[in-house]
Amino acid sequence: MSFDAAAPGTSRAVWAGDPRLAALPARDLRGFGAVVVLAAHPDDETLGAGGLMARAAQEGAT
């Protein structure tokens, strides 16, 4: 199974407009050598930790 953001569901505008998003603290991910994500269901890693994985990769983590 693959994740497609264009599929029906919660729109990007709704996610982006949620005020809780702006209230989340930024985390310094420098110094992490690796990140392991365990996900119970298909697309959980994308929806639940996609941003974390992208930021960790930008900081050099595998």
UniProtKB/TrEMBL annotation:
Family matches, as SUPFAM superfamilies: LmbE-like
InterPro entries reported for this sequence: LmbE-like_dom_sf
Protein name: PIG-L family deacetylase
Native source species: Frondihabitans sucicola
